[in-house]
Design brief:
Largest sheet: 5 strands, parallel
CATH topology: TIM Barrel
Radius of gyration: 17 Å
Strand content: 5-15%
């Protein structure tokens, strides 16, 4: 199996730009990340030549489950993309540092997991910047990818976020609905059944059943000939003009419905020494 290029942290932090986001020149970006030199800024899957797919994990890092997942991925020489919640990134920076050191990619998933399409520009900007800062503090570089919570984002938000933060907007085409906790075998079967070359697979590293599903899921996908890359690596493989937009222009529909009364859980303070509390 072809092993993706590992990400490299920056040696020094560049001066902040007018937007408040650090300016990162192309040669300073982690290896294997997209440089946004394309017209498409939003992806739910990527048309590629070859059996390449991207595993993604949202909402962590989780103090216990994410390291377990990293062990599973390391044993199989698989690199994934983690879309982290800023509150968790700030509390567990050592987990992000490990993930980058082992070749994984880190993306922005907001500070507190709200639905962007219902928010003001200034409120969304605060969510993004705080998370960007937490990721940079932990890993030495800023992310180049954003996954909006619930997939909730307007066409206008995509444009200004890409212009001001440089993010590509990443959704998905394979969703096992693992947040409903259907059980490891169901999660595994849904992912294996729905995955095809160029897929961006959604899952969450905050649910025990998802972590339990991963060994067999990954083994089955590898047995079928799929090769795992980060999302940015998948984007660089896109056939010209073939990338699929995630939403039609002007759409504000959330691919993942928000359950009535749902609130993203606030992290419980950890007793572990040396961790920054939210």
């Amino acid at each position: 199996m072809t092993t993706p290029i590992a990400a490299k942290p920056l040696a020094t932090a560049p001066p902040p730009a007018a937007t408040g986001r650090p300016t990162v020149s192309p040669n300073e970006r982690p290896a294997g990340t997209a440089t946004s030199n394309h017209n498409v800024i939003s992806y739910s899957e990527v048309h590629v030549d070859g059996p390449y797919i991207a595993m993604t994990f949202d909402d962590g890092p989780n103090e216990k489950l994410t390291p377990e997942l990293l062990d599973i991925l390391k044993a199989r020489h698989i690199h994934a993309t983690f879309f982290v919640v800023g509150q968790n990134a700030e509390r567990f920076p050592q987990i992000l540092e490990r993930a980058v050191r082992e070749g994984h990619e880190i993306g922005n998933h907001s500070w507190s997991h709200p639905a962007f399409a219902k928010m003001s520009e200034s409120a969304v900007r605060r969510e993004l910047q705080k998370t960007d800062d937490a990721i940079r503090a932990a890993t030495g570089h800023s992310p180049v990818l954003l996954r909006p919570p619930y997939g909730s984002i307007t066409a206008h938000q995509k444009q200004w976020i890409h212009a001001d933060f440089g993010y590509d907007i990443i959704l998905w085409d394979v969703d096992p609905l693992d947040w409903k906790r259907p059980g490891p075998s169901v999660v595994m079967n849904r992912i294996v059944k729905e995955t095809h070359p160029g897929s961006i697979i959604l899952s969450h590293d905050i649910h025990p059943g998802t972590i339990a599903a991963m060994p067999e899921t990954l083994d089955r996908l590898q047995a079928e000939g799929f090769k795992f890359v980060t999302v940015s690596e998948l984007i660089t493989m896109a056939k010209p003009g073939s990338a699929k937009e995630s939403h039609a222009a002007g759409s504000t529909v959330s691919p993942t419905p928000i359950p009535p009364g749902f609130a993203f859980p606030t992290p419980v303070p950890s007793a572990s020494p040396g961790l920054t509390k939210p």
